[in-house]
Amino acid sequence: MRLSNFGVLEEAINNIDNTIKLNIYKKMYRSRKFEEGVIESVECKQIKSAVYLSIGQESIAAAIIEALGNKHYVFTQHRCHSTFLSLGGNILKIRDELLGLPTGSSNGKGGSNCLQIHENGINMFGHHGFIGENLPQAVGACFGSNKPTLCFLGDGAIEEDYIYPSIGFAVTHKLPIIIICEDNDLSILTKTEDRRSWDVSEVMKSFGIPSVNMADDPWSIYEKISGLFANTDGPIFLNIKTCRIKWHAGIGADKMHEWDRFSIVKEELLSLGLGSQLTVIEEEVNKEMDIVWDKKTLQQLLKK
Ligand SMILES: Cc1ncc(C[n+]2csc(CCOP(=O)(O)OP(=O)(O)O)c2C)c(N)n1
Ligand SMILES: [Mg+2]
Protein backbone atom coordinates (compact mmCIF):
# COMPACT_ATOMS: atom_id res chain seq x y z
CA MET A 1 0.00 0.00 0.00
CA ARG A 2 1.20 3.49 -0.82
CA LEU A 3 1.56 5.70 2.26
CA SER A 4 -0.63 8.31 0.54
CA ASN A 5 -3.49 5.76 0.88
CA PHE A 6 -2.76 4.86 4.50
CA GLY A 7 -6.00 4.74 6.52
CA VAL A 8 -8.00 6.34 3.70
CA LEU A 9 -11.75 5.65 3.76
CA GLU A 10 -12.49 4.58 0.17
CA GLU A 11 -16.11 5.69 0.23
CA ALA A 12 -15.57 9.07 1.90
CA ILE A 13 -15.29 10.99 -1.37
CA ASN A 14 -18.71 9.69 -2.45
CA ASN A 15 -20.35 10.45 0.90
CA ILE A 16 -19.54 14.17 0.79
CA ASP A 17 -21.65 16.75 -1.08
CA ASN A 18 -20.02 18.31 -4.13
CA THR A 19 -20.40 21.77 -2.57
CA ILE A 20 -18.30 20.70 0.38
CA LYS A 21 -15.74 19.02 -1.86
CA LEU A 22 -15.42 22.24 -3.86
CA ASN A 23 -15.15 24.36 -0.69
CA ILE A 24 -12.27 22.16 0.45
CA TYR A 25 -10.64 22.41 -2.98
CA LYS A 26 -10.97 26.21 -2.89
CA LYS A 27 -9.29 26.42 0.51
CA MET A 28 -6.43 24.22 -0.73
CA TYR A 29 -6.03 26.09 -4.03
CA ARG A 30 -6.11 29.47 -2.32
CA SER A 31 -3.42 28.44 0.14
CA ARG A 32 -1.26 27.00 -2.66
CA LYS A 33 -1.59 30.14 -4.80
CA PHE A 34 -0.97 32.44 -1.85
CA GLU A 35 2.26 30.60 -1.07
CA GLU A 36 3.36 30.69 -4.71
CA GLY A 37 3.07 34.47 -4.31
CA VAL A 38 5.15 34.23 -1.12
CA ILE A 39 7.85 32.35 -3.02
CA GLU A 40 8.02 35.01 -5.74
CA SER A 41 8.18 37.77 -3.14
CA VAL A 42 11.02 36.02 -1.32
CA GLU A 43 12.85 35.57 -4.63
CA CYS A 44 12.62 39.28 -5.41
CA LYS A 45 13.55 40.11 -1.79
CA GLN A 46 10.31 41.88 -0.91
CA ILE A 47 9.79 39.36 1.90
CA LYS A 48 13.00 39.34 3.92
CA SER A 49 12.08 37.30 7.03
CA ALA A 50 11.98 33.48 7.24
CA VAL A 51 8.90 31.79 5.81
CA TYR A 52 7.50 28.39 6.85
CA LEU A 53 5.47 27.08 3.94
CA SER A 54 2.43 24.81 4.16
CA ILE A 55 2.79 23.69 0.53
CA GLY A 56 1.89 19.99 0.38
CA GLN A 57 0.05 20.04 3.71
CA GLU A 58 -2.95 22.22 2.74
CA SER A 59 -5.62 19.51 2.85
CA ILE A 60 -5.46 19.13 6.64
CA ALA A 61 -6.60 22.60 7.70
CA ALA A 62 -8.94 22.81 4.69
CA ALA A 63 -10.85 19.63 5.61
CA ILE A 64 -10.91 20.21 9.36
CA ILE A 65 -12.11 23.79 9.16
CA GLU A 66 -14.66 22.93 6.47
CA ALA A 67 -16.00 20.24 8.81
CA LEU A 68 -15.99 22.22 12.07
CA GLY A 69 -16.32 25.87 11.01
CA ASN A 70 -14.09 28.71 12.17
CA LYS A 71 -15.46 29.68 15.56
CA HIS A 72 -13.29 27.48 17.79
CA TYR A 73 -10.25 28.60 19.67
CA VAL A 74 -7.43 27.61 17.32
CA PHE A 75 -3.84 27.17 18.49
CA THR A 76 -1.48 26.79 15.55
CA GLN A 77 2.09 25.68 15.11
CA HIS A 78 4.83 27.57 13.25
CA ARG A 79 3.75 26.21 9.83
CA CYS A 80 0.37 27.89 9.76
CA HIS A 81 -0.35 29.86 6.55
CA SER A 82 -2.89 27.26 5.38
CA THR A 83 -4.66 27.28 8.76
CA PHE A 84 -4.85 31.08 8.79
CA LEU A 85 -6.29 31.17 5.26
CA SER A 86 -8.67 28.23 5.74
CA LEU A 87 -10.09 29.94 8.83
CA GLY A 88 -10.85 33.00 6.69
CA GLY A 89 -8.16 35.23 8.21
CA ASN A 90 -7.68 38.52 6.37
CA ILE A 91 -5.33 37.75 3.47
CA LEU A 92 -3.89 41.28 3.33
CA LYS A 93 -2.97 41.06 7.00
CA ILE A 94 -1.01 37.85 6.49
CA ARG A 95 0.68 39.27 3.37
CA ASP A 96 1.61 42.46 5.25
CA GLU A 97 2.83 40.45 8.21
CA LEU A 98 5.23 38.56 5.94
CA LEU A 99 6.36 41.87 4.43
CA GLY A 100 7.08 43.19 7.95
CA LEU A 101 4.55 46.03 7.66
CA PRO A 102 2.66 47.63 10.58
CA THR A 103 -0.59 46.65 8.84
CA GLY A 104 0.27 42.96 9.36
CA SER A 105 -1.64 40.64 11.71
CA SER A 106 1.00 41.18 14.44
CA ASN A 107 2.00 44.67 13.27
CA GLY A 108 4.75 43.12 11.16
CA LYS A 109 6.67 41.97 14.25
CA GLY A 110 5.71 38.27 14.45
CA GLY A 111 6.32 36.98 10.94
CA SER A 112 5.35 33.78 9.17
CA ASN A 113 5.67 31.41 12.12
CA CYS A 114 3.80 33.50 14.71
CA LEU A 115 0.62 34.44 12.85
CA GLN A 116 -2.45 35.23 14.88
CA ILE A 117 -5.86 36.67 14.16
CA HIS A 118 -8.65 37.76 16.48
CA GLU A 119 -11.51 39.24 14.48
CA ASN A 120 -14.88 38.33 12.95
CA GLY A 121 -15.31 35.57 15.52
CA ILE A 122 -12.03 33.94 14.49
CA ASN A 123 -9.61 33.29 17.33
CA MET A 124 -6.31 31.97 16.09
CA PHE A 125 -3.49 32.10 18.64
CA GLY A 126 0.00 32.04 17.19
CA HIS A 127 3.17 30.09 17.91
CA HIS A 128 5.67 31.66 20.35
CA GLY A 129 8.90 29.81 19.72
CA PHE A 130 8.85 26.50 21.59
CA ILE A 131 7.35 23.79 19.40
CA GLY A 132 4.40 22.07 21.08
CA GLU A 133 4.00 24.81 23.71
CA ASN A 134 0.68 25.58 22.09
CA LEU A 135 -0.80 22.37 23.51
CA PRO A 136 -0.53 23.33 27.22
CA GLN A 137 -1.82 26.77 26.23
CA ALA A 138 -4.72 25.27 24.27
CA VAL A 139 -5.61 22.94 27.13
CA GLY A 140 -5.56 25.86 29.58
CA ALA A 141 -7.69 28.04 27.33
CA CYS A 142 -10.14 25.20 26.74
CA PHE A 143 -10.36 24.49 30.51
CA GLY A 144 -10.89 28.17 31.30
CA SER A 145 -13.53 28.76 28.64
CA ASN A 146 -14.96 25.30 27.94
CA LYS A 147 -14.94 26.47 24.33
CA PRO A 148 -14.27 23.82 21.64
CA THR A 149 -10.58 24.15 20.85
CA LEU A 150 -8.32 22.98 18.03
CA CYS A 151 -4.60 22.54 18.49
CA PHE A 152 -2.35 21.93 15.47
CA LEU A 153 1.19 20.71 16.02
CA GLY A 154 3.88 18.72 14.23
CA ASP A 155 5.28 15.21 14.64
CA GLY A 156 8.42 16.73 16.19
CA ALA A 157 6.45 18.91 18.58
CA ILE A 158 4.40 15.94 19.81
CA GLU A 159 7.61 14.51 21.35
CA GLU A 160 8.07 17.44 23.76
CA ASP A 161 7.86 16.73 27.48
CA TYR A 162 5.07 19.21 28.23
CA ILE A 163 2.70 17.44 25.81
CA TYR A 164 1.78 14.41 27.94
CA PRO A 165 0.88 16.13 31.26
CA SER A 166 -1.35 18.40 29.15
CA ILE A 167 -3.02 15.40 27.51
CA GLY A 168 -3.54 13.82 30.94
CA PHE A 169 -5.19 16.99 32.20
CA ALA A 170 -7.43 17.27 29.11
CA VAL A 171 -8.57 13.65 29.48
CA THR A 172 -9.22 13.96 33.20
CA HIS A 173 -11.36 17.06 32.69
CA LYS A 174 -13.00 15.74 29.48
CA LEU A 175 -12.07 18.92 27.66
CA PRO A 176 -13.56 19.50 24.19
CA ILE A 177 -10.19 19.75 22.48
CA ILE A 178 -9.14 18.30 19.12
CA ILE A 179 -5.41 17.75 18.76
CA ILE A 180 -4.18 17.50 15.20
CA CYS A 181 -0.66 16.27 14.49
CA GLU A 182 0.44 17.37 11.01
CA ASP A 183 2.79 14.42 10.61
CA ASN A 184 5.18 15.17 7.75
CA ASP A 185 7.66 12.61 9.14
CA LEU A 186 10.27 15.32 9.65
CA SER A 187 11.55 17.47 12.47
CA ILE A 188 13.62 19.92 10.40
CA LEU A 189 15.63 17.20 8.60
CA THR A 190 15.37 14.25 11.00
CA LYS A 191 12.93 11.48 10.13
CA THR A 192 10.60 10.01 12.74
CA GLU A 193 12.28 6.57 12.64
CA ASP A 194 15.55 8.20 13.75
CA ARG A 195 13.86 10.05 16.64
CA ARG A 196 11.55 7.60 18.38
CA SER A 197 10.44 3.98 18.54
CA TRP A 198 6.82 4.59 19.59
CA ASP A 199 3.61 5.40 17.74
CA VAL A 200 1.90 8.54 18.97
CA SER A 201 -1.62 7.39 18.14
CA GLU A 202 -1.05 4.26 20.30
CA VAL A 203 0.08 6.48 23.18
CA MET A 204 -3.07 8.58 22.80
CA LYS A 205 -5.21 5.42 22.83
CA SER A 206 -3.56 4.41 26.10
CA PHE A 207 -4.96 7.66 27.57
CA GLY A 208 -8.39 6.51 26.34
CA ILE A 209 -8.55 9.18 23.64
CA PRO A 210 -10.29 8.36 20.32
CA SER A 211 -7.35 8.40 17.97
CA VAL A 212 -7.04 8.41 14.20
CA ASN A 213 -3.88 7.65 12.23
CA MET A 214 -4.16 8.20 8.48
CA ALA A 215 -2.93 10.02 5.38
CA ASP A 216 -4.00 13.55 4.45
CA ASP A 217 -6.92 12.58 2.19
CA PRO A 218 -9.32 15.48 2.91
CA TRP A 219 -12.47 13.41 2.34
CA SER A 220 -11.43 10.87 4.98
CA ILE A 221 -10.41 13.64 7.39
CA TYR A 222 -13.76 15.39 6.86
CA GLU A 223 -15.75 12.21 7.44
CA LYS A 224 -13.72 11.08 10.45
CA ILE A 225 -13.67 14.40 12.23
CA SER A 226 -17.36 15.11 11.67
CA GLY A 227 -18.28 11.68 13.12
CA LEU A 228 -15.87 11.86 16.07
CA PHE A 229 -16.79 15.42 16.99
CA ALA A 230 -20.50 14.60 17.06
CA ASN A 231 -20.01 11.50 19.22
CA THR A 232 -17.12 12.21 21.59
CA ASP A 233 -17.14 13.68 25.03
CA GLY A 234 -13.54 14.82 25.67
CA PRO A 235 -10.33 15.11 23.67
CA ILE A 236 -9.85 13.67 20.16
CA PHE A 237 -6.49 13.03 18.50
CA LEU A 238 -5.73 12.92 14.79
CA ASN A 239 -2.34 11.96 13.43
CA ILE A 240 -2.40 12.95 9.77
CA LYS A 241 0.44 11.78 7.55
CA THR A 242 1.37 14.40 5.00
CA CYS A 243 4.28 15.67 2.89
CA ARG A 244 6.20 18.89 3.31
CA ILE A 245 7.21 19.84 -0.22
CA LYS A 246 9.55 22.73 0.61
CA TRP A 247 12.37 23.13 3.09
CA HIS A 248 11.62 23.41 6.82
CA ALA A 249 12.05 27.19 6.44
CA GLY A 250 12.48 29.11 3.23
CA ILE A 251 11.45 28.39 -0.33
CA GLY A 252 13.89 25.69 -1.43
CA ALA A 253 13.16 22.00 -2.00
CA ASP A 254 15.90 19.40 -1.80
CA LYS A 255 14.24 16.00 -1.99
CA MET A 256 11.45 14.28 -3.83
CA HIS A 257 8.33 14.27 -1.70
CA GLU A 258 6.32 11.03 -1.73
CA TRP A 259 3.08 12.66 -2.82
CA ASP A 260 1.40 16.02 -3.35
CA ARG A 261 -2.15 15.78 -1.99
CA PHE A 262 -3.23 18.86 -3.91
CA SER A 263 -2.54 17.13 -7.26
CA ILE A 264 -4.30 13.95 -6.13
CA VAL A 265 -7.38 15.92 -5.03
CA LYS A 266 -7.50 17.85 -8.29
CA GLU A 267 -7.31 14.61 -10.32
CA GLU A 268 -10.10 13.08 -8.22
CA LEU A 269 -12.40 16.06 -8.70
CA LEU A 270 -11.69 16.15 -12.44
CA SER A 271 -12.54 12.45 -12.71
CA LEU A 272 -15.88 13.19 -10.99
CA GLY A 273 -16.72 15.63 -13.80
CA LEU A 274 -16.24 18.79 -11.69
CA GLY A 275 -13.77 20.40 -14.11
CA SER A 276 -15.87 23.46 -14.97
CA GLN A 277 -16.48 24.21 -11.27
CA LEU A 278 -12.73 23.95 -10.61
CA THR A 279 -12.06 26.43 -13.41
CA VAL A 280 -14.47 28.95 -11.87
CA ILE A 281 -12.77 28.60 -8.48
CA GLU A 282 -9.29 28.89 -9.96
CA GLU A 283 -10.14 31.99 -11.99
CA GLU A 284 -11.64 33.68 -8.94
CA VAL A 285 -8.63 32.87 -6.75
CA ASN A 286 -6.13 33.82 -9.45
CA LYS A 287 -7.76 37.25 -9.74
CA GLU A 288 -7.58 37.68 -5.98
CA MET A 289 -3.89 36.70 -5.96
CA ASP A 290 -3.09 39.10 -8.81
CA ILE A 291 -4.28 41.89 -6.53
CA VAL A 292 -2.66 40.54 -3.35
CA TRP A 293 0.75 40.06 -4.97
CA ASP A 294 0.73 42.95 -7.45
CA LYS A 295 4.41 43.96 -7.62
CA LYS A 296 3.80 47.70 -7.94
CA THR A 297 1.45 47.73 -4.95
CA LEU A 298 4.04 45.88 -2.90
CA GLN A 299 6.77 48.32 -3.92
CA GLN A 300 4.61 51.23 -2.82
CA LEU A 301 3.73 49.58 0.48
CA LEU A 302 7.38 48.85 1.24
CA LYS A 303 8.43 52.44 0.43
CA LYS A 304 6.11 53.97 3.02
C1 LIG B 1 11.25 23.22 22.33
C2 LIG B 1 11.88 23.46 20.99
N1 LIG B 1 12.86 22.65 20.57
C3 LIG B 1 13.44 22.83 19.35
C4 LIG B 1 13.00 23.88 18.55
C5 LIG B 1 13.65 24.08 17.18
N2 LIG B 1 12.69 23.67 16.14
C6 LIG B 1 11.95 24.60 15.47
S1 LIG B 1 10.91 23.87 14.38
C7 LIG B 1 11.49 22.34 14.74
C8 LIG B 1 10.96 21.12 14.02
C9 LIG B 1 9.50 20.95 14.23
O1 LIG B 1 9.06 19.79 13.60
P1 LIG B 1 7.56 19.46 13.62
O2 LIG B 1 6.97 19.72 14.95
O3 LIG B 1 7.40 18.08 13.09
O4 LIG B 1 6.91 20.54 12.61
P2 LIG B 1 7.21 20.71 11.05
O5 LIG B 1 8.26 21.78 10.95
O6 LIG B 1 7.66 19.42 10.52
O7 LIG B 1 5.92 21.17 10.43
C10 LIG B 1 12.46 22.39 15.73
C11 LIG B 1 13.15 21.19 16.29
C12 LIG B 1 11.99 24.73 19.04
N3 LIG B 1 11.53 25.75 18.33
N4 LIG B 1 11.42 24.49 20.25
MG1 LIG C 1 7.22 17.50 11.16
Draw up the topology in text:
Layout: H1 12-15, H2 18-43, H3 58-68, E1 73-75, H4 81-87, H5 91-99, E2 117-119, E3 122-125, H6 134-145, E4 149-154, H7 163-172, E5 177-183, E6 186-187, E7 190-191, H8 200-206, E8 211-215, H9 218-231, E9 236-241, H10 261-271, H11 275-292, H12 295-303
Parallel strand pairs: 1-3, 1-4, 4-5, 5-9, 8-9
Antiparallel strand pairs: 2-3, 6-7
Bound molecules: thiamine diphosphate and magnesium ion.
The dominant shape is globular
**Biggest β-sheet strands, sense, barrel:** 7 strands, mixed
- The CATH C-level class name: Alpha Beta
Instruction: Tell me the CATH topology.
Output: Rossmann fold
Helicity range of the residues?
Answer: 40-55%
**Derived structural class:** alpha/beta
What is the CATH homologous superfamily assignment?
Answer: Thiamin diphosphate (ThDP)-binding fold, Pyr/PP domains
How far apart lie the N and C ends?
A: 54 Å
Sheet-strand content, in percent, reads 5-15%
Order of helices and strands: HHHEHHEEHEHEEEHEHEHHH
Question: Would you give an account of this structure?
Answer:
- The chain is an alpha/beta fold and 304 residues long.
- It has one domain: 3-Layer(aba) Sandwich (Rossmann fold), CATH 3.40.50.970.
- It is built from 12 helices and 9 strands.
- The strands form 2 sheets. The protein has a 7-stranded mixed β-sheet, with helices on both faces. Strands 6-7 form a two-stranded antiparallel ribbon.
- β8, α9 (218-231) and β9 (236-241) form a beta-alpha-beta unit.
- α6 (134-145) runs parallel beside α7.
- It is globular, with a radius of gyration of 19 Å.
- The mean pLDDT is 96.
- The chain binds thiamine diphosphate and magnesium ion.
